[in-house]
Design goal:
Blueprint (H helix, E strand, L loop, with lengths): L2 E2 L7 E9 L5 E8 L5 E5 L4 E8 L4 E4 L7 H6 L7 E2 L5 E2 L3 E4 L2 E4 L8 E2 L12 E8 L2 E10 L10 E10 L3 E10 L3 E2 L3 E2 L2 E2 L14 E3 L4 E3 L12 E2 L11 E2 L10 H6 L3 E5 L9 E7 L5 E7 L3 E5 L8 E2 L5 E2 L5 E6 L14 E2 L5 E11 L7
Antiparallel strand pairs: 1-6, 2-3, 3-4, 4-5, 5-6, 7-17, 8-11, 9-10, 12-13, 13-14, 14-15, 15-31, 16-30, 18-29, 19-22, 19-24, 20-21, 20-23, 23-26, 24-25, 25-31, 26-29, 27-28
């Protein structure tokens, strides 16, 4: 599960084969490695974070993401395992919304809702590598995708780019951009599932501490669609402002929101709002290993998903069976169902404009005094 770090001489990027799709199309992988030994494997299927190797306080490396270790695993056991999510991350109620006086109908893949872009979202597409580079202390790969007009019901031809850059200090910077030739809606994010103990950590994520700088969150209805209310976290298990261990509240069925979501599966309204540069949205600490993950974003919200639907039927890296709480997702984004809820702002993209979202996964370690 863990190995001692071997620092690289400088940031590097290595391009390799990952497998072949049933139609014969090749899937590629690019491994980015920083000077401190942190490495990330990116796969073109879904523009996916396939692995994220980070040291503990003693320099032992472990993959802090869960998911498949082969292409077959991605094809046979569909889940959102670190993929790029689009055209619209999270849920759109009834799989429809109004745009310029007409109703746009989307594919429905979550009951009557459209989730994470629909039946064939960006997570299922094989992206094209536009460039691979290593210079200026960063190793990078840029992937592109053309989403045609009418794709999953969304209007407009959409040209999407995601750039992954790993620097020598342990920050994975993710830059999303998109352009359209007709009015549409866009909301892109990454859906990595993290466990700072490492893939296969026997205690799941319950021994890890989450902090979120948000004074309110978006309560949901029985279909996990935001009700429109912005509810204070004060005095609830949704208050992560000072940090909360993940065992503290996950089983809190006396809170109707925990019961509806089968745990946490909600969007927090970040106090910072939408910003021009990425700012802190979440911090996870694992006292035993000393690993720390910080999530930064330019977007106004972050979806925290506590792995509620990992039900023991999904088998991943090293033959691990993934159970509820074995990993968490922290997905920066515009608010769910924004196209149907004007009070949430706008997710509209017009011709001549460029959609931009920058997010960062930054790893570091605690010093020894934080150990138990």
């Amino acid at each position: 599960m863990a190995s001692l770090a071997t620092p690289a001489a400088a940031a590097t990027a290595q391009r390799t084969a990952f497998g072949t799709l049933p139609d014969g199309e090749q899937v590629e992988a690019v491994t980015l490695t920083g000077e401190n030994g942190v490495s990330v494997v990116l796969v073109t299927l879904g523009a996916t974070i396939q692995a994220f190797n980070a040291p503990d306080r003693d320099g032992r490396m472990a993959d802090i993401t869960v998911g498949p270790d082969t292409l077959a695993g991605y094809l046979d056991q569909h889940n959102y395992w670190g993929q790029t999510i689009g055209r619209y991350a999270n849920r759109i109620a009834t799989g429809s919304f109004e745009l310029d006086g007409r109703t746009v109908h989307l594919t429905q893949n979550d009951g009557t809702n459209s989730l994470h872009g629909g039946t064939e979202g960006f997570d299922k597409r094989n992206w094209t590598i536009a460039s691979v580079s290593s210079d200026d202390g960063k190793a990078s790969v840029v992937m592109t995708l053309r989403s045609p007009d009418g794709d999953q019901g969304y209007p407009g031809n959409l040209d999407v780019q995601v750039a992954y850059s790993l620097d020598d200090s342990g920050s994975l910077i993710i830059d999303f951009t998109a352009q359209t030739d007709a009015p549409t809606v866009v909301n892109l994010t990454n859906h990595a599932l993290f466990n700072l103990g490492g893939n296969g950590w026997p205690y799941g994520t319950y021994d890890q501490k989450l902090s979120v700088p948000a004074s309110s969150y978006l309560p949901v209805d029985a279909d996990l669609i935001p009700t429109g209310e912005r509810r204070s976290v004060e005095g609830t298990v949704f208050d992560f402002r000072e940090g909360r261990m993940l065992y503290d509240g996950l089983r809190g069925g006396s809170d109707d929101q925990i019961a509806l979501g089968h745990g946490w599966d909600h969007n927090w309204v970040l106090d910072k709002g939408r910003t021009s540069r990425p700012q802190l949205a979440a911090r996870v600490e694992h006292p035993l290993s000393g690993r720390v993950l910080e999530v930064l974003t330019t977007e106004p919200g972050i979806q925290f998903y506590s792995g509620n639907f990992l039900d023991g039927t999904l088998i991943g890296k090293g033959g691990q069976v993934y159970r509820m709480g074995d990993a968490i997702a922290l997905e920066p984004q515009a608010f769910p169902d924004t196209p149907n809820q004007p009070a949430f702002g706008s997710a509209r993209l017009n011709p001549g404009e460029t959609y931009r979202h920058t997010m960062i996964y930054r790893v570091s370690t605690l010093d020894r005094k934080h150990d138990r």
